[in-house]
Amino acid sequence: RAFGTMIAIGWHASMEAGKTLVSYATSKTLAAKERSSVKYLHYLEGLLPKLHEVVLLYREGLCTLFPAAYTRMGNEASIRDIAEWSDIAFDGTNVKNPFANALVVTHNDFCNFLHRDRDEIEVAYGMWWAANFDAELNTWLFDPSVDHKDIEGGQFLWGEYGVMVDFERSSGLVDIFWRGKKDRHSTMRSTSPRATARFGTSVQITAAGAAAFRRFWETDESKRRSVLTTMADRQKS
Fold it and tell me: Pfam family of this protein, just one (predicted)?
């Protein structure tokens, strides 16, 4: 069965009344506990401007691992005017850096069933790493003393081909390209020691996100801002 935690950041289709394109909302649990706290707001203010550095890691990683796939993702996003997931300055007027519209992050011994992703194109790329939880800082940190070998299981599997990435035999940062829309794949269940986790991530152009951008650009220019919810809007609400 599906297990663990999955979160995302970027742009997606809206289920909010009167909205067409929205940024992913903050976790409801986190929002209920911390949204009104000064510490939480300062944390977001410090984190969001650094997202452009994070997206560069994914751009460089995919370009190095599979240049043709990187070019395909960039071209498709450019043709469709799809803003990249890290573009917190996008206000509906123009797209500065077209790329994947979503970054998905999993942890807490995440696993799922064999499935195909609901993506617009076949290109998906991700990174996996191990981390320790620092109780004093209340956050996850890289720790050279912790690696994939310390976490049992959690293989990334291509079911139709009988091929998998065995993270326990890997070390450091592991990056993977896969055809999420075409090939059945899954993450197997893992068992992590206390305060230790394997983080998995992926960037892709989702089908729902691409459709939302298409509807957004088809909206009359004078009405676009009213059907858009940005990360800045989320912080104000």
Answer: 2OG-FeII_Oxy_6
Q: Tell me what pLDDT residue 40 has.
A: 65
Structure tokens at 167: 């993270």
Q: In sequence order, what are the beta bridge partners of 132? A: 141, 196
User: Quick one: which of 124, 135, 123 has its CA closest to 200?
Assistant: 124
Q: What is the rounded CA–CA span in Å between residue 152 and residue 119? A: 30
Residue range 15-51, pLDDT digits in tens = 889 999 999 876 554 544 455 566 666 777 788 889 9
Find the length of the chain.
237
The H or E element that residue 152 is part of is strand 152-153
Please answer whether residues 199 and 129 qualify as being in contact, where contact means their C-beta atoms are separated by less than 8 angstroms: yes
Q: For 64, what's the count of Cα atoms within 13 Å in the CB-facing half-sphere?
A: 9
CB contact set of 97 (below 8 Å; sequence gap of 6+): 55, 83, 84, 87
Specify the DSSP class assigned to residue 84: P
Contact 148, 198 (CB under 8 A): yes
Q: Are 131 and 200 in contact (CB under 8 A)?
A: no
User: Taking the chain (237 residues) in consecutive chunks of 10 residues, what is each chunk's mean pLDDT?
Assistant: 89 94 71 56 79 97 98 98 95 94 97 97 98 92 96 97 97 98 97 98 98 98 96 79
Are 234 and 92 spatial neighbours (Cβ–Cβ below 8 Å)? no
| pLDDT tens digit sequence for 147-159 | 999 999 999 999 9
Report phi then psi at 37, rounded to 5: -80, 145
CA distance 26 to 46: 16
